[in-house]
Amino acid sequence: MKHSPGLLICEECGAVYWRIARPSGEIMWRCSSKVKYGKRICQHAPSILDDDVKQAICEILDMPEFDPQAVKKHLECVRISPDGSLTPEFIQRKYMKMIL
Ligand SMILES: [Zn+2]
Q1: Ligand 1 center–CA 99 separation, angstroms
Q2: pTM for the full model?
Q3: What's the gap in Å between 16 CA and the centre of ligand 1?
Q4: What is the distance in A from the centroid of ligand 1 to the CA of 92?
Q5: Nearest-5° Cα angle at 82, 35 to 21
Q6: Which of 12, 39, 67, 100 has the highest CB neighbour count under 10 A?
Q7: Contact call for residues 69 and 61 (beta carbons, < 8 A)
Q8: How far is the CA of 54 from the centre of ligand 1 (A)?
């Protein structure tokens, strides 16, 4: 499963999230600056399970199952806040702003 780079953005520091496989085989999303520099730069960014991210995006887009094409089409990015909630930014919103 491939995601477009920069789909998940850390709200605390503005860095992209990286998709990282743990030795256990679990796939996690982690703030890249937290991975690189530690808590010095980014203190509260949560690590999120890949499955949880997919499930949340399915709910956001009202999809029965995860569809990377639909995600690409509709989502500009998803912001991860320090409390672990996901805030989607839709691509359409930009067009609406331009029209208005
Ligand atoms: Zn961060």
Answers
A1: 33
A2: 0.82
A3: 8
A4: 26
A5: 35
A6: 12
A7: no
A8: 20
